[in-house]
Amino acid sequence: MFRLILSRLIQLPVILTVIFVVTFVLAWVAPGSPLDRTDGRRPPPEVQEAMLRQYNLHSPWAFAGSYVRNVVTRADFGPSLQYPELRVSQIIGQSLPVSAAVGVAALIIGLFMGVMAGVIGALKPGSVLDAASLATALLGVSLPAFVTGSILLVIFVGLLGWVSVGGWEWPGWDFWTTAWWGDAWQFLRRITLPAVTLGAMPAAYIARLVRLGLADIMASDFIRTARAKGLSHHRALFRHALKVAFLPVLSFLGPAAAAAMTGSFVVEKVFNIPGLGEYFVNAVLNKDQFLILGIVLVYSVMLILFNLLVDIAYAWVDPRIEL
Amino acid sequence: MRFSAVRWSLGVMLALGTLAGCERQDPTSSGPVSDNAKAVLTFASSTEHHYLDPQKISWLHDFRVAELLFTPLVRWSLTDMTLEPAAAAKWEISDDQLTYTFHLRPDGKWSNGDPVTARDFVYAWRRALLPDMAADYSQLLYCIEGAQAFFEWRSNQIQQIAQGKLNADQAWQQAIKRFDETVAIKAGDDHTLVVKLASPTPYFLQLCAFVTFFPVHEASLSKLEKVSASTGMIEYPAEVTNYWSDPAQLVSNGPYMLKSRRFRRDLEAVPNPHYFDRDKVANGGWIEVISTNPQTQLIEFRQGKIDWLPDIPTVSPLAADLVNQKLPTVHVSPAAATYFYNFNCLPTLPDGRKNPLADARVRRALSLAIDRQTIVDRVSRLGQPIARTFIPPGVIKEYQSPSDAGHDYNIELARQLLAEAGYPGGKGLTGLSILYNTGQGHENPAQQIKRTWEETLGVVVELEAYESKRFSELLKGKQYTISRASWFGDYIDPSTFLDKFQTDGGNNDNGWSNTQYDALLRQAAVELDPARRMTLFTQAETILLNEAPIAPIFQYVNLDVYDTRLKGMSDNPWKLRRLDLVSRSGR
User: Is ipTM > 0.90 here?
Assistant: First the structure.
């Protein structure tokens, strides 16, 4: 395992370099200037030229050179071209934790709901419960987040008024004050709807994976043997089959975790979450090179790390797998 | 995205909220530090700020906050739309209308207690004139003697530094010296600012109220400036760029000062205890909530958490639904802005083909065949005033729009003009397409116009939709035949509209050139008699409309959602606000 971690860490800079080059080239050749505006006055050519020079955008070599130099020597990802009074690191630093919180909550909900639904279905294949869990899963996969989100928004925020979608306050971490509970409660109220919306898709997907996996494994020889030796159906399912059926879920969880934690444009837009997802999409539309590169690099690191965690978890769940 | 059910429910919710008199609660737990008797008010912005640096600002939501934080020499009195003294207590204008002498009020103070001096204005205006700052509105200062020459000289200097011909630091010292010597913005003493113009500019006082001309605190900002060794330009290094978001650093002279600014969340401005007119500030401060989704903003408004929504996009189905419900909280007023189509007027198209739109008769024919009333009634559904002129009639009181603009809906005349131009029944008129940017509601009017042209004139028109960057690139490179466009006036003078179409104007996207039009604008620029000047503008606009490089379609409307208990909002076409005078009654 140590070798695996070491080799992944050695690969990291190589992979990041390749990703940087590809992203940089794509962002550079995309049409339009990052400093252009659709409406309003266009600054005179001298100003446009000055702006390009200010950010080294007059030449791809100057830009790439200064970018890499700043990242490597000062860990500075540059300014955002759309929000020039902010550094990319400030944007990511303030938005990523918000997206990550929603993402973690979504994964917990997705995992819990998905495994529950999958197991319920597998317990009594062909039953009403199985059909219901299958239908729910199908609905979860088919309904896009903007539909789920809008419905939840209208019901729980608009009509019932149970939840607020304004602002974003982290709960305080001072456990000794009574205000902590209030803060935490407010935070939970704020995060639940986006987390449910974001978690619906993974929940549905996980439910299908678990349901199908369990059905296969419950019909396999080692379960039949265990059952012949007198093990109850439930015990065989929970103690032996579920662990194996969980392996495909693990493979799915790596990229899903990275995707959920780096934010979703739609969910953030619908629920007014100050996360990274919206900036990711807008950065591309606005050709904000610094922000695109910064977010892609952070996303890549997260993806690589989550995949590494998945590999490690594989070995833990199934000792037959050698790393 | 069109979700009728969702929009319908939101509309119902808004209506219910309004009828029930919205349960209102204190919008924030972190209220103002002083003046508890006055309500802290809240508005929503749709995006994070691009700049709070006044010299760099060009977006409307940035203007709003800059106006909270800074006070210019003069400001608008919105009850009678006149300019009144602000940072300047009084001013004199020389007989030749070239020299303006501003006397700053002695009690003018920055939020840290420092006096506001003429030097602060000279420093701010110098920043606006440095190509280093890459300020969108540098050109507004070109009316000042020596300003344009200085800008060009410094641009040239920067190029030489990039080529290694000049030392960056020495060049900067030369630039400061040259500015002081050649640009006619002088601090006579601490409280006297003297500005000499290159030519009479009747709207110069209005410019002084515009954000680019706001002062900044020289003592705190200048010490953060560094000369970049590589580019030779002034820059604010990474470690100090939070001047504009850090309340401990940002010094302002407006009715409010920054209390907090959180990226993509909110900004709080509290009353500035050093503000000269603090007794007249009618509220306890403003909180700006950043919320990118207008539907979410409406929910927050209904719940009484936000007092004012200034950023509901007007070209959207949501806006139409809101307006058509005729709620007392929805305020619609004509804007000083026009939605129009550009016609490419170059003799040949970028692909080398002859451009049929180079013929003014073809352009006028197309404009005559736009059914504007149907667009505002059934496409945008906002009922905007239809536009037959480029400058929206009535937004500039002294200006008389051309009476016979020639852009009515007249199919017969359109067909006749096409036939005269050699395209009877539209035959032979090919290669036309309407270029627009996606995601902003421009598709529906384009569809409607395409259909009308095809059905009434017999021409074939394609639709070309691109995301905004590609759209801007094609527009700038004149790689289009017809494109959608809009123009918002910056100051109350016809030149803010008509200058756009000057030959070689930086914003002339049509390639249209008319020597008579240019000459009239040049004459108007030096004309001292106000009535005569307005006549010259009317004549220029008449030429513009006869030649039809554009087809005006409709006048934009300003759409604001705010509680009827907000007093002092003073809606006007120019979106000018005095947020210091807004109050909320009946808490």
Answer: no
The torsion region of residue B468 among left (phi > 0), alpha (psi -120 to 50) and beta comes to: alpha
Query: Using only C-alpha atoms, what is the Rg of chain B?
Result: 25
Nearest CA in chain B to A161: B303
Burial category of B403 from C-beta neighbours within 10 Å (exposed 0-12, middle 13-18, buried 19 and up) = exposed
Answer yes or no: is pLDDT of A176 > 70.
no
Contact between A94 and B468 using a beta-carbon 8 Å cutoff:
no
Across A272-306, b (16+ Cβ under 10 Å) vs e yields: bbbbbbbbbbbbbebbbbbbbbbbbbbbbebbbbb
Site of tokens 């190509």: B131
Q: Give the nearest partner residue to B486 out of A39, A87, A146, using CB atoms.
A: A39
B336, two tokens: 């000083």
- Interchain proximity A39–B296, CB inside 8 Å: no
C-beta separation of A195 from A111 below 8 A: no
Q: Work out the average pLDDT over A149-157.
A: 88
Residues 16-75 of B with CB under 8 A from A: 48-53, 56, 58
Question: B299, A153: Cβ pair inside 8 Å?
Answer: yes
Res B28 pLDDT > 50: no
State how far residue B297 is from chain A, nearest Cα, in angstroms: 8
- Measured between CA atoms, the residue of chain A closest to residue B509 is A42
Residues 6 or more apart in contact with residue A155 via CB below 8 angstroms: none
Distance from the first to the final alpha carbon of chain B: 37
Angstroms from B487 CA to nearest CA on chain A: 6
**Residue A275 distance to chain B (closest CA, Å):** 8
Handedness of CA A64, A69, A75, A81 (dihedral sign): negative
Mean pLDDT for A40-57 is 76
Alpha carbon distance B456, B136 (integer Å): 42
For the ranges A105-119, A229-243, A299-313, B1-15, the one whose mean pLDDT is highest: A105-119
pLDDT at A219: 83
Distance from CA of B189 to the nearest CA of A (A): 32
User: If contacts are CB pairs under 8 Å, which of residues 273-332 in chain B contact chain A?
Assistant: 289-293, 295-296, 299-300, 302-303, 305-306
Lowest mean pLDDT among A44-53, A84-93, B127-136: A44-53
Give B485's Cβ-side CA count (13 Å radius). 28
Contact A94 B264 (CB under 8 A): yes
